[in-house]
Amino acid sequence: MKRKKKPVEVEIQAAEVNDIPVKKNKTKNLVIAVIACFLGLCIIATGIILPFVLNDEYTNEKGVNPYAVMKLSNGMTINYEIWENECPIAATNFIYLAEIGYFDGTIIFDSQNGWVRFGGWQDDSLHRGDDNKEFLAKITDRKYGDSDYTNNKFGYRLKEDTARSNYYDTVGVLSFCYERSATEFQVAASSDLSLTIPNDDNQDWKVAPFGMAADSESIANIVAIAALNRDETGEKFKHDYYRAPLDEDGLIKIESVKVTKKNADKWKKFSFMDYVKGEDSSKVLYSWYSTKRVTGTKR
Fold first, then answer.
1. Is there a single domain that holds both residue 162 and residue 230?
2. 295 Cβ contact partners less than 8 Å away, ≥ 6 residues apart
3. What is the value of pTM for the model shown?
4. 47/63 same-domain check
5. Structural domain span for residue 51
């Protein structure tokens, strides 16, 4: 009688049992890692490329007016369209000052006669163009040939070039005082304006419009600033005829003025001294003071 053969027992190793799930897990982890790396690279690439794509600091398009964004310490933002194509002298001056940070950290120093005024005055009642040595030391392009304007880098006056002189009493219009100071500016907060400066021998306040508040919110902010109480006693800002508007925190500072949509051909290698002392200087520059500013006297 033949003896039945016992079935052959096959010993299955644990590793063989788990082999398929392990391979699946490895594949899954690899796919996740590849996806994670891809997404990471996308995020990095976006962070590098997107700012260049969205950056509109310069433009090669002709006839486009620059756009200025002024941020204030009270949370307000005022946007301006700068009429560079129609008013190149005043507009160029304003854009240049914004580019070198001239306005940053200064205050809105006056609010009266329907105007809100800014440009150069600090909360210590000193003027950036004369007394802030740290700032002045950073501006190195104030020499031209044998002429050295180091001691009074901002004591210049520009000629009027506005093509929109009839806009001076339009709420939101941005102007500068030609024949007086090229580094102080005013925005119309009312259509009922006075063109004389209080306590200044009734001299004419000659304004040259060169820009306009770009939206209704900006205009509303200008009007709101003009409606604030003013520093009548000179407690916050000491000056004979400026009346600084005061919000709940006191003086209103200009945190920054940034300009975009600038003409690339002009502004990427712009030299202000070459501009005002160039071949057409007689059409641009009215005068350059050799002494301290004459825009007012500190108490």
1. yes
2. 127, 180, 181, 184
3. 0.77
4. no
5. 14-55
